[in-house]
Design goal:
Helix content is about 45%, strand content about 20%. By secondary structure, it is an alpha/beta fold. The chain has a single domain, classed as 3-Layer(aba) Sandwich (Rossmann fold). A hairpin with a 2-residue loop joins strand 5 and strand 6. The longest helix has 16 residues. It binds guanosine-5'-monophosphate (5GP). The site of guanosine-5'-monophosphate has 13 residues, from strand 5, strand 6 and strand 7.
């Protein structure tokens, strides 16, 4: 796929604060637009279909896979799929905005491979695995089983950090957003 704008990919273990950092970046920079992913996971009570995710059944999701509609997709958790639709990417570029993605580590590396120098790959790191566990527990969105799944995945994901263009440690959220914002502005060659 030929890039028609820049892409910023924010990846991190679940619970590292990635979504808050993405929201912070979107609030500061109107030239960025969020790529709404498709997923087969269940909608959380506060989430809105078509805003947080495009929520699909397994059948709907796999029909789109068969149709070649995805730029990338992953079985992020067993039997739970997430993916980026070409349609989403094209819609944002048509609005002359740069795209910000919130994806898992493998998705981030795939997007980087597709867009190369037009892509900034940002890894958000929790201060420690213990902090991550505490944050996920306090979020109250996970069962003990899904919490364990996320921690196991996080341990694996942390090993990939060296493959990223930049690393931001999320200890204090406002500091992390500012750090990420400076990196994004440098990449886009605009004053911060
Ligand atoms: P959550 O269920 O917490 O919303 O997301 C779980 C994980 O899936 C997160 O790491 C999130 O970034 C990732 N994810 C969300 N959308 C996509 C996507 O389109 N592609 C890939 N590869 N991962 C995604």
């Amino acid at each position: 796929m030929e890039p028609r704008g820049k892409t910023i990919v924010v990846a991190a273990p679940s619970g590292a604060g990635k979504t808050s950092i993405v929201r912070g970046l979107l609030a500061q920079h109107s030239f960025l637009a969020f790529s709404i992913s498709a997923t087969t996971r269940k909608k959380r009570p506060h989430e809105v279909d078509g805003k947080d995710y495009h929520f699909f059944t397994n059948e709907q999701f796999h029909a789109k896979v068969e149709n070649g509609d995805f730029l990338e997709y992953e079985e992020v958790y067993k039997n739970t799929f997430y993916g980026t639709l070409y349609a989403e990417v094209n819609k944002i570029w048509a609005e002359n905005k740069h795209i910000i993605f919130d994806v898992d580590v493998e998705g981030a590396l795939n997007i980087k491979e597709t867009f190369g120098d037009n892509c900034l790959n940002l890894f958000i790191k929790p201060p420690s695995l213990y902090t991550l566990y505490e944050r996920l527990k306090n979020r109250n969105t996970e069962t003990e089983e899904s919490l364990q799944k996320r921690i196991t995945k996080a341990e694996k994901e942390l090993k990939y950090q060296t493959k990223f263009d930049q690393i931001v440690i999320n200890d204090k959220l406002d500091v992390a957003i500012n750090d990420a914002s400076k990196i994004v502005c440098e990449f886009l060659k605009i004053p911060s």
